[in-house]
Amino acid sequence: MKQSPTEIPAVAEKIIQWYDKSGRHLPWRELRNPYAIWLSEVILQQTRVEQGRSYWERFLQELPTVEDLAAASDTQIKGLWSGLGYYRRADLLHRGAKQIARTGWPQGTKEWLEVPGIGPYTAAALASIVDGEVVPALDGNAFRVYSRLADWSEPIETSRSKAFIYSLALNFVHPKRPGDFNQAVMDLAQALCTPKKPKCNECPVQELCDARSAGSAELRPV
Ligand code: SF4
Question: Alpha helix (H) ranges present in the chain?
Answer without folding.
Answer: 8-22, 34-43, 49-62, 66-71, 74-81, 88-103, 108-112, 120-130, 140-149, 159-172, 178-191, 210-214
